[in-house]
C-alpha cells in the first residue's frame, strides 16, 4: 500500500492495492483496515482516509497536495506499518527548467532522408527522424506568417521526444567513415567561390597534391552546425576525395604488377623541357578537381 503521511496535521491517506475494497468489513489478506488504523494511531495519526489505486475512488490531487508530506510504500505486519520504500517527490516540486532551443533545422542524411536537427542552449545537439507530415509542415510554413509558431511547436515536440527516448536520436551531421588507408589529407579549407558565393568548394592536400572539389549546400550547412568543425572538415575531405585515393592506389598496384611482368627494361629518356614545365605548372598551381 502507499501511505501519504502529514505529520504536521496528523492525517494520512492510504492507497490500497488493486482488488482491495474500501469497506471496513471487506478485507484482503495483509490489508486489514482496522489494523492499519491502529498502526497509524501509534504514529500519532488522528485521521485516516482510504483510497483505491485507480478509478473514481482513487486519490485525485495535484502535486502541491503532497508538499510537506511523506510518501511511502508500506507493508502491514500485525499492528505495525513497515516502510519498504520512500518515494522521493523532489523532482515533482522542482520548478520546470525553461528550455531554450537555439537551432532547429531540417537536414538530409546520407540517404536523403530528412531529420529535425535540434540544439538547446547548454545542451548537446541531436537529430530525430520526424514523420513525413511534419517534414511537409516544416517546409510549407517557411514563407507563411505563422512560420515561427509552427517551427517552435515542432521543435518542442521533437526535443521532448529525443529527451524522453534517447534511442530515437540520430547523427546526421558527422560524415560517414571511409577507409582511406595510409593516405594523408591536410591543409583543408572549405569556402565559397569568388565568382559565385552561393557555390562552395573544398581544398585539400591529398598525398602531397593540392586538390579541390565542389561541396553541396547540405554539407556546407552541416559544417556550421557541427560540434567540432575541424573534425568535420577532415571527415568530409576523406569522403569527397576517397574516389581519387582509391584510383591512385589501384594505379599503383597495376603499375607494380606491370613492372614485375616486364621482361625488358628501357633506359630513361629525358622529357622535353616544355613538357616538364607544363607538369610543374599543373602540379604546383592548378590542383586537381573532383566532380
TL;DR?
Helices cover 33% and strands 25% of the residues.
Describe this structure as you would to a colleague.
- This protein is of the alpha+beta class.
- It is elongated and about 90 Å long.
- The chain has helices at 33-42, 90-93, 132-140, 147-164, 217-225, 229-261, 273-286; strands at 2-6, 11-15, 47-51, 70-77, 80-86, 101-108, 114-120, 126-128, 169-170, 185-192, 200-206, 209-215, 288-289.
- Helix 5 (217-225) crosses helix 6 (229-261).
List keywords for this structure.
alpha+beta; 4-stranded antiparallel sheet; 291 residues; 13 strands; elongated; 7 helices; 5-stranded mixed sheet; disordered C terminus
What class do helices, strands and sheet pairing give? alpha+beta
Order of SSEs, N→C?
A: EEHEEEHEEEHHEEEEHHHE
Number of helices: 7
> What is the topology, as strand order, of the major beta sheet?
3-2-1-4-5
Helix coverage percent: 25-40%
* Largest sheet features: 5 strands, mixed
Please state the CA-atom Rg, rounded to the nearest Å. 35 Å
Any low-confidence stretches, pLDDT <50, length ≥5?
259-291
Q: In one word, what is the shape?
A: elongated
Strand % is 25-35%
Nearest-integer average pLDDT? 82
Beta-strand segment tally: 13
Distance between the termini: 70 Å
Amino acid at each position: 500500500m502507499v501511505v501519504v503521511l502529514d505529520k504536521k496535521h496528523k492525517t494520512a491517506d492510504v492507497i490500497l492495492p488493486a482488488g482491495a475494497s474500501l469497506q471496513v468489513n471487506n478485507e484482503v489478506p495483509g490489508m486489514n483496515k482496522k489494523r492499519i488504523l491502529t498502526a497509524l494511531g501509534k504514529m500519532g495519526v488522528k485521521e485516516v482516509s482510504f483510497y483505491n489505486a485507480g478509478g473514481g475512488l482513487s486519490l485525485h490531487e495535484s502535486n502541491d497536495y503532497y508538499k510537506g508530506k511523506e510518501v511511502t510504500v508500506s507493508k502491514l505486519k500485525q499492528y505495525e506499518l513497515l516502510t519498504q520504500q520512500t518515494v522521493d517527490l523532489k523532482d515533482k516540486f522542482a520548478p520546470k527548467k525553461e528550455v531554450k532551443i537555439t537551432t532547429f533545422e531540417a537536414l538530409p542524411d546520407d540517404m536523403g532522408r530528412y531529420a529535425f536537427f535540434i540544439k538547446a542552449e547548454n545542451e548537446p545537439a541531436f537529430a530525430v527522424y520526424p514523420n513525413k507530415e511534419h517534414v511537409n509542415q516544416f517546409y510549407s510554413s517557411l514563407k507563411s506568417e505563422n512560420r515561427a509558431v509552427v517551427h517552435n511547436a515542432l521543435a518542442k515536440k521533437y526535443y521532448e521526444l529525443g529527451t524522453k527516448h534517447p534511442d530515437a536520436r540520430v547523427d546526421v551531421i558527422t560524415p560517414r567513415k571511409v577507409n582511406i588507408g595510409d593516405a594523408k589529407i591536410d591543409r583543408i579549407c572549405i569556402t565559397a567561390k569568388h565568382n559565385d558565393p552561393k557555390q562552395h568548394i573544398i581544398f585539400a592536400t591529398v598525398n602531397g597534391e593540392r586538390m579541390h572539389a565542389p561541396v553541396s549546400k547540405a554539407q556546407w550547412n552541416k559544417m556550421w552546425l557541427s560540434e567540432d568543425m575541424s573534425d568535420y572538415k577532415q571527415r568530409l575531405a576523406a569522403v569527397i576525395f576517397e574516389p581519387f585515393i582509391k584510383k591512385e592506389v589501384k594505379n599503383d598496384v597495376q603499375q607494380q604488377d606491370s613492372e614485375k611482368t616486364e621482361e625488358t627494361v628501357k633506359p630513361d629518356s629525358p622529357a622535353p623541357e616544355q613538357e616538364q614545365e607544363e607538369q610543374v605548372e599543373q602540379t604546383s598551381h592548378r590542383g586537381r578537381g573532383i566532380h
